[in-house]
Amino acid sequence: MAQQIERRTTSVYKRYIEHSEQSSYIEIPFQMPPDVEEIHVSYQVDSHGGDPAKAVIDLGIRDAEIVRGWSGGARQEFIIGPNTATPGYLPGRLAAGEWAILHNAYKVPAQGCTVTIEIEFTYKTWRWLKGDLHTHSVHSDGSYTLEENAAIMESLGCDFMAMTDHNTNSQNFAYPRGTSILMIPGTEFTTNYGHSNFLGVTSPMDDFRVSGISDVHEKFRVARERGAKIVLNHTHCDNCPWEWDFNVDYDGVEIWNGPWREHNRRALSWWQERLVTGRRLVAVGGSDVHRPDSHVKHAMPCVWVWTDEKTVEGVLNGIAKGHAVITYSPDGPFATLQCGEYGIGDEVPYGHAGHEVVVQLDDLMAGDLIRLYSERGLEEETAVDSEGGVILTFDAKHISFLRAEVWRQFGQADGMSMAVVTNPIYFASNGGTLALNHED
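Structure for Phosphoesterase, as requested:
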């Protein structure tokens, strides 16, 4: 999963408009290429002849089905992306096929005019996006508005946040539109015996009340049917652990909730035990931020997701595939695992030409400890003696998975705390893949 360079192409179209076409609508067709994430359209109009009256040509665009936007003569350019667009234009997917620039030839000089349109296509690019999967607002027991949450996440340089207020979905209909932060709809399904996040859908359930495990299974079934990804939250918390049966339908577990504390350490150990049994369980984290606090802060911890598009589907699918790293803050440090073309969350096929895993770590500090784990336990520990990056190699020929951790001494903290934890890279055995969906 090596970082790819952003790819762009530009197409230019010219159209001469005769005076006789005044007051008519004109289409300039173009092909939307596959895998485009964003387009930037600009145009200019050159009037011909000595007519002092300049041409007035309005601007808009359509896709294969509908008009996606119209700005008349008010704008010279616009942008459309999957989540945001220039006012007057609709964000969303840019489906490959025939599109068209729309013009209204409002005023055309006697000698006509020429319109020049430039379309810049920005293609989907694999990269790491970072954000917070567990936040609260005034829509439940938090003090932050959604706008304040988004502004804080923007200031941290993050890309996404999940809005997970308790047992409500009103936040999913009130999210701010004028932000660069991808707002992932969510609900924290909150019961007396455990909490879980339903991510990716605005209304994952109609009624949160439960009286037993059968009701919990039903809520999970409905959320899943509606398309939600499901994460069990702070499973080993002292105050609100997961006390229901673990034999429920879920995608991941929040092993890191808020500042690194003992209950996170217990969740980490529990997760490692699941991995040892062959369960490919995705680990995530979340700040669980509610209000200004000296310790619980936005994107601490921060989840990084390897994806090719900044959309709800892109982020959640990346997480579902295990393409995720958790760091104590949006500033890192950071770690990746690579075996040939395979990376974090991937399975290296049996018989692959090589088993050497390259472990790359960035933004380390002197005194950090790098730990590599497999199903056999701690495989290797390396002390860092200077700031910067470190590259390690590990022969993974006889193991089924490998994951990395970085531990650091933070200020006056008692002992070392987690700074980075990755999901594993997996290795297929001769007998095939063992990937359980539920607890036995």
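Helices lie at 146-155, 213-225, 262-276, 312-320.
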